[in-house]
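Data availability (excerpt). The following record was deposited with the supplementary files.
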Amino acid sequence: MKTDVVVIGSGPGGYVAAIRCAQRGLDVTIVEKEKIGGVCLNVGCIPTKALFKNASFIKDLKKSDALGIDIKDYKINFPQMMDRKDYIIKQLTGGVKQLLKKNKVVVVSGTAEVVDSTTIQVKSSDGDTTIKCRYIIIATGSTPIVPPIPGVECEGVMTSKELLAIEKLPESLAIIGGGVIGMEFASIFNMLGVDVTVIERLPKILPSIDSEVTNGLAESLKERGVDIQVSTELKSISSSKGKLMLTLNSDKISVTKVLMSVGRKPVLPEIKNINVKLDKNAIVVNDFMQTNIPNIYCIGDANGKMQLAHVASAEAIVAADHLSIGSKKKMSYKSVPSVVYTIPEIASVGLTEEEARSKGDVLIGKTKYNGNGKALCMGETEGFAKMITGAKHKELLGVHILGYGASNLISEAGLAINLEATAEEIAHTIHAHPTISEIIMECSEAIDFKAIHSL
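Predicted structure:
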């Protein structure tokens, strides 16, 4: 079998790379060992956001009396929630399959081995297939890290993949790791009525997020009953009578289920006969996503840059255009937005306040949700937005949001950073009223001169 490009992996990096290469007129083959759509569509971004909607709706039900709607009782039908999740996954993965078919991308099922720089061997239950190609794009993603803690093999100890397949809600859940995945599940399962404990080894949850934002989220979750234990290490797990006993620094807790969410590590294909350069088990790439072997590229989690689906898709475009038309557009990470789908949401782009202050003098503009008309109408007054600029030129350095709709608001900030906008330019951009987006305008006004609606 011969083709121009072989893409290994069909997640948000792989399938985007395949389609862009095909749009550029190349013959493309995708090799996928599991399901089309990769982790993101099947056991990651999409299923968790489906459950996030369920949790958000329950939050609205709990405050319905404030809206003049009397709902005394409601019942959680967890199997139906999971069926809805599966239906959404089926819709989206089916859509990706149609896009690949429309662009005449050949899909081969099996495990890919890179035999040399122009040969891929695919192993499957139906036999082996050899594919000769001009280019290879590695998009094999990542897998959960399971630390070697005594008892981690006990029944009921799961990664996010297994947790997304449970058939009934657990009475209690201990989440090991206060990163993005852990905190999203903490929010969701807490709202579904599960007793949730978060165990984080570091001094704060979400260590890469602005501290003021993470402190606000922690306070909100604690008020809802989530037990967040930072600077706490899990020593061991044991099982007895259907319960899991967790030994911590100087304490023990008993729970029904345990989620291990301490991070993810790159998954790499087997590579023979050539030396692709690695760094800490991730494939080293240049600004065009090219490895040290010129016709082999690597995108997404496997290159160790940023473990975000939208970054993988952006890297896919850079790689595909470079190999197909010789594009000189380099991958840039300066305006990558990050979203944490907790309740309330978190979104950020650019430098945190701590990072910005370490580089020089800054100005801070902050606006609370409770002063925004649309937020008041929606009953979503929790949270704030914070804008960080340089002190001299007031150029935008970072924006951090805790609150309703943060995931949608952050794109404006990302565009502003990408275009090197100043606070004045954002403040003088008329924002529709009443909208949550006025919060961004208010932050920039606070920096440029004075915000009108901030007390």
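Summary of structural features: The CA atoms of residues 11 and 39 lie 7 Å apart.
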